[in-house]
Predict the 3D structure of the following.
Amino acid sequence: MLFLKINKTDAEKARKMIMELGIFENEYKVENKGKYVYFPIKKKISDIGEIVELKGNKSKRRRSIEEILGKVLEKKELENLVRSYDLIGSIAVIEIPKELEKKEKEIAKAIIEVHPNIKTVAKKMSAVSGEYRTRKIKIIQGKRTKETIHKEHGCSFKLNAEKVYYSVRLSGERERVKQLVKPGEKILALFAGVGPFPITIAKNNAECEIISVESNPIAVKYFKENIILNKIKNIKVVEGDAGKIAEKYPEWADRIIMPLPKDGEKFLKSAIKSAKDGCIIHFYTFVESEDPLKKAEEIAAGKFLESNTKFKVVSKRIVRSYSPKIVQVVLDLRVIKNK
């Protein structure tokens, strides 16, 4: 039996990840051994951690979604069922194919039965769009609320799943960037949302100075609540246009975070202006899946050339697949101004 081996400190993050990917194997128990937790999984997926084989113990706790829906859905309908979903706090945001809409309540009930921590199931009613990168959702089962508290990396984030943008799939990136931060850094967090990047950093780096910028007033409201919720003292929240505000802090930042996946390059020149020599810019972007890292570098190079500034790629990686032909990439770029 396949198991995902994870350090206990990262167990909750891993549990949410494999639930979202739809690969958790309900027929087997989660194993706890020493410093590690072993999650049973249905199949191997690259870049999720160490996969090991164990005998495992059969679980008697609850049935799988397939077992529950086996009496409700026909075989072809089960094949069309989208098993992955976004788990934001106690809300599961799912995709219901058009041919299964008449049975959406049964699908939602099955999800809640299998995962008691889920209190609300909502379905996607639109694509992510608009200036604030939000989507319409409709509650189809459970508690009638779109507000929840999502927990990750020891932090709590209160939010409305319809009114603000929140990507659970950037959880690993938030942890990665947090680990890179050095004591006393000045950090500019653009497109900060309800505060996941800056609060994750501040929770572990109280001596850093963080300025966070967000244009969505509803997200700003939640961000300020989350600062209080997490007992943070070193974050300043500024509501407004990321580009205009970044330029008010010329050569100020040691680190700049830019997690806006769509059209983020439009703000890169402003970020460069606010960067000190040696500043690291974490630049996220969507590109076509064919040679994506090269395409992302070309985008960044064009903006640095326009800014008459040199740079070095410190790190680059594919963060996640967005669609069959589109992936999200992150480049860690060191700004070079004094050469």
Remarks:
- The longest helix spans residues 292-306.
- The chain has three domains: 2-53, 65-145, 168-336.
- The chain has a mean pLDDT of 92.
- Residues 2-53 form a domain with the Alpha-Beta Plaits fold (CATH 3.30.70.2580).
